[in-house]
Amino acid sequence: MARPRPSARAPRPTAAASEADPTALAPVLEPEGRALLDSLGEHRAADALAVSSRLRAAGHPPERVAAVLTQADLRARAVPRLGPDARGMLFTRDGLEQATRPVVAALHAQRMAAAGARTVADLGCGLGLDARAFADAGLGVVAVERDAVVAAAAEVNLTDRPGARVVHGDAVPWAREHVPAQADAVWLDPARRQVGGGGSARVFDPEAFSPPLSVVEELAATGVPVGVKLGPGLPHEAVPAGAEAEWVSVDGDVVEAALWFNAAARPGVRRAARVIDTRGGQATTAELVSGADFGDSPGVEAVGEEGMPGLVGEVLHEPDGAVIRAGLVTDLAVSWPTPARQLDPHLAYLVATEHAADPLARAYRIDAVHDFHLKSLRRWAKEAGVGRLDVKKRGVRETPEEVRRQVLGGSKGGRAAAGGRHATLVLARVGERRFALEVTPLD
To answer: What UniProt keywords are attached to this protein's entry (predicted)?
Structure first.
């Protein structure tokens, strides 16, 4: 009997295969719909049913009411990320997921202005967040968008930016025909998810982006300043020769990896980490750069298994995610006046005798070093009266949630009796052993 033939491997997702965004914009592009949307004020999802009934009873068509409530919900979701200006903007569901934060878009604009750009072609402009920032920096902008729905939203969002215009069309053919004649710099934010069927799949292959990375390199070959926003998981081997790669984090979250070409790339910089913090009410920025290629960072001493018991009283430093993604962990270590060691050559933890007080890393005083055994950690938590436990990890299989639940005895939410002390454990595999470091945050 013949064996059944194995089924063909499912094709990898490509962003170009995405379905069109289903967000209904037509009703809110009409004057009546926009006026109704703007009249709603602050929106709460819990009130949607009551508001819908009230608007329909007032004689508004169902499709207008549905579109208005969708936009009200998207605006409410956008404000924490994009700021108060979002209350006057239009969104699509997919577009909001990939929208650039204003503080980051402003950095893109500064980079293009410093490169000597006068007019930027924003290819695949999405909702126009970067285009708004380019215009605010005094640059002309041609925002090109293939999706008619998204282009309509971008046009509304750029209405008050007279230096920007929206072109509905395919970005790549437009660029091949009009760069550099109509734009002397190029910015791209390729789609990096395949959307459809009620869900989406992340695309990891840069050649499966829309447009693919090879098109970005083709545009860079024209010699104009070029920048492209990519996902923070961009593999180092995918970074083209001659490009500057910059990983950016905002308030602890790595939000993008940007590649810069030609005059937009800084001389002597191959990779960079930029850390932005807005939690103090005013944005602060710290940066670490290297001219060395990926894998060519300096070596530093490692603590290793034998040195773990002697770490009590020293300071553990956790580099920001942007530093880690850029491969700059040991570059950070050698930048400090106090010598620092890696906990293990494979872990992004640094140890120093003093607190480096660097915005590129969070710091913890090491109070005790335990072997990582759940049974003994449960006993430790009980004896120490731990009522709340934060868990961080590197190189161990167990999840923080799992460890928290088991160490605190399975209490709801991983919390023991109210009033207990707040403790932090850092779990790490060093050499062949697993350790749990009891630490106190210093930042």
So the answer is: Methyltransferase, Transferase
